[in-house]
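Dear Dr. K.,

Following up on our conversation at the group meeting, I've run the structure prediction for Carboxylate-amine ligase from Brevibacterium daeguense. I'm pasting the input sequence below exactly as I used it, so you can double-check it against your construct before we proceed with anything downstream. Let me know if the numbering doesn't match what you have in your notebook.
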Amino acid sequence: MLYFDARLSDHVPTLEVRVADVCQSDEQAAVIAGLLRALVETAVRDWQAGHLVMSVPAAVLRTWMWQASSSGVDADLIDPLTGTPAAAAVVVGRLLDTVRAVLDEYEETGRVEEILAEILSAGSGARPQREVHQTTSDVAAIVRRALEATHASSREGAALRSAVAARGLRAL
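The predicted structure tokens came back this morning:
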């Protein structure tokens, strides 16, 4: 079995990336996409400039990803620059520092920081699912909770996009 987290598409000129978590809103999904785009653009620019890339063994990366997936932003993450645990807010802050130039170019820095602050405060999409599981252990209830959250966000997002388009403004 071939396992990947990111790969070049075999039929379109894009990079395919696994979604990091259940996004509870379309804004969260847009921020994840914006961060991924900024990270890829930053990496390409660094490579073109001849900057060296840190080499991390695949087994170590898998361990770091397992830790992040098991706790999300509710616990320490591994800081990829140091290889040591750090508060999620610190690790996310360093990620923002790394990609800030690209986010600034797309005029997305403020909105990305705002949504990430909400995620760091309220938790990722896994938190409400875990809460439902702890109270009911009912998989159907967990799915219903995720559907309710994402559908409510979709309706709110559609209204916001319409308002932004009516004003001729650029939305994230």
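Two things stood out to me. Residues 139-166 form the longest helix (28 residues). DSSP finds six helices and four strands in the chain.

Best regards,
J.T.
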